[in-house]
## 1
Amino acid sequence: LKHLLTVEALTDQEVMGLIQRAQQFKQGARWTPNKNQYFVSNLFFENSTRTHKSFEVAEKKLGLDVIDFDAKTSSVQKGETLYDTVLTMSALGVDVAVIRHGDENYYDELIQSKTIQCSIVNGGDGSGQHPTQCLLDLMTIYQEFGHFNGLKVAIAGDITHSRVAKSNMQMLKRLGAEVFFSGPEEWYDESFDVYGTYRPLNELVPEVDVMMLLRVQHERHDGQESFSKEEYHEKYGLTIERGKQLKPSAIIMHPAPVNRDVEIADSLVESLQSRIVPQMTNGVYIRMAILEAVLRGKS
Ligand code: CP
């Protein structure tokens, strides 16, 4: 891989190859490039705990040299653009820039540059895509069921603003899963109909193999929300009562951070059917596989 920008750009074979390699890393496989061979920098312009820190753990497990970057203490504060920041990192010898940024498709100008040499791994672009989250979600589903074909997957919540939902709906459909959507209609767009079917949550809960909840993205709503947290939970959330309606074999997923008692009842977050914690752990291994694929592509 030269870059990882969207899941759409990956072939099915590449997706399965990354999942299998991540599983090998989880079981103890090693890839240890030489010291000072590869430099990686994590450039996060939006807040993050899981993506940022799991990339950092993945990089350290691979023995890569991680170049610290904090937008708040960098020359971004003097008005330096994203382009010039990445140009600088590339000039310094950074091989891979992992970037999260609020602008959708921020990476277009970076990959078109003839001067920027480093690979770009997208850690989330606004409401656009979150390919590494999608891959760790796929890994989690694959570990559970061993396939995607015919699985019924519900994606419920703030779909319009969710880059996770957009990446997942595309790839799950392509891999043969049957995708359903639920949540507030105002946060649903007809353009999603090509990937799945919108249905009431109460109908979906007893039918699905995977119940994937999405965070209500308060920061992207400009203060315009027509329901309280309690109303949202009752109408659109996985309440304790709805949780009891799930098939025993069904799993609960959420990319996190979780608004407890909003998208999902507090007690279901760490319940037996929840895979929310394994999703976070898998994030380290899938990111090791991604970094290895990108860096091997450079040598
Ligand atoms: N799931 C996810 O992207 O979490 P962070 O925003 O904490 O990285």
## 2
Amino acid sequence: MCTVTCIASINIAVIKYWGKRDEMLILPVNDSISATLDTEHLHAKTTVMTSPTFKEDRIWLNGKEEEIKNPRLQNCLTQIRKRARNSNQWKVHICSENNFPTAAGLASSAAGYACLVVALAKLYQIEDDITSITRSGSGSACRSVMGGFVKWCMGSESNGADSIAKQIVPASHWPEMRILILVVNDAKKKISSSIGMKRTIETSDLMQHRLKHVLPNRVKIIEQAIIEKNFKTFAEHTIKDSNQMHAVCLDAYPPIVYMNDVSHTIINLIHAYNEAVNEVKVAYTFDAGPNATLYLLEESVPEFVGVLDHFFPPGINSEQYRKGLTFREVINSQEL
Ligand code: DP6
């Protein structure tokens, strides 16, 4: 029997991947940029095993056996076996665990597929670039294969050969950067990212504006801001990109709403705070769910956590708290 175990973390996009130009190959309509978190906090841990005694491929997620025939999982397995350097055709058993809520807009599929593909690639001794295999599991997963700030270049080739993830800078480039995740609701989201982005592409007029007139420039500006460690520019574009992703969702027909009242309270609080201190000290971003991810520098953490404690007091059994934040972690972006 051969066994490999890997850990991969979630990544949080500051330029959102929202929309595919090829649903089968999972090719995006725009470049996206994210930071991969350190492996200590929110991660997937996956063990893969092969043995001549295994009769079929099987998978367990968080202790429960799941359907191995899931098309995306099958895509990953087929591609891995095609690229395998060893001629091992034994069946594989996969056990994966997340230490955070699954499918609550916390990019669980990104960490899960990144981890699975890295583990399988080790098991089958694949040494060349695996981002295309990861992408076929879940688009954003290809960014979790690397640490630090990562760009998934949309590419232009129809077979997706140049649609790959590249590290912009390692986490050590900006060691003061902190990520604070505010879990507003850890229930499974109602409209998956895949369905949400498909509907947006098909029905939103605003999406055309985003793709043609906003993103090409924004991607360059934020990449430069990361390289120059210019927090103000980084934060402003992170905020604007999150709001634009949710604006195109609202512009879809029927509209898609991922944020709730608590999400909007957090947004208002952050703008009020930045205005009060007369500086952009905290940026927020929301994926396909109501949970907020905040980017801020280490020096701002104590004061801002104090502000959060004031408005969302931990442990107080008030209606506001019950509807409010249930969990916070300060996470340091690090290399895998
Ligand atoms: C809002 O990678 O989950 O988190 O490719 O359909 O699996 P599929 O989508 P997925 O979408 C992530 C969308 C997002 C933005 C982002 O991470 O860039």
